[in-house]
Design brief:
The protein has 91 residues and is mostly helical. It has one domain. Helices cover 62% and strands 9% of the residues. It is built from 4 helices and 3 strands; from the N terminus they run H-H-E-E-E-H-H. The protein has a 3-stranded antiparallel beta sheet. Keywords: Ion channel, Ion transport, Metal-binding, Transport, Zinc, Zinc-finger.
Length: 91
Amino acid sequence: MDRKINERVWGDSWGREAHYRKRRVDDLLLDAAGDQSSSYRKLSSGKYACLLCPHTPVFDTPVILSMHMKSRRHLAAESRFKQNEKKDKMR
């Protein structure tokens, strides 16, 4: 009986391990995007917002954020940002 109650509350060990692995993969994806850490922000809701794109998209998971950061639209916004930054330094 205790085992059944414990499984309902905490889940089985496989579920906890799978959840831990998923969170670890998410952390690694964000670390891989570390050089672009100023291009996104983690919101209080746990979602991620892209700060470079003009429409400021919000993403649920780091996986979707990393896919967005590789997209043509984001890369174009990033290049425009770098060009503007370079112009400001020359002034």
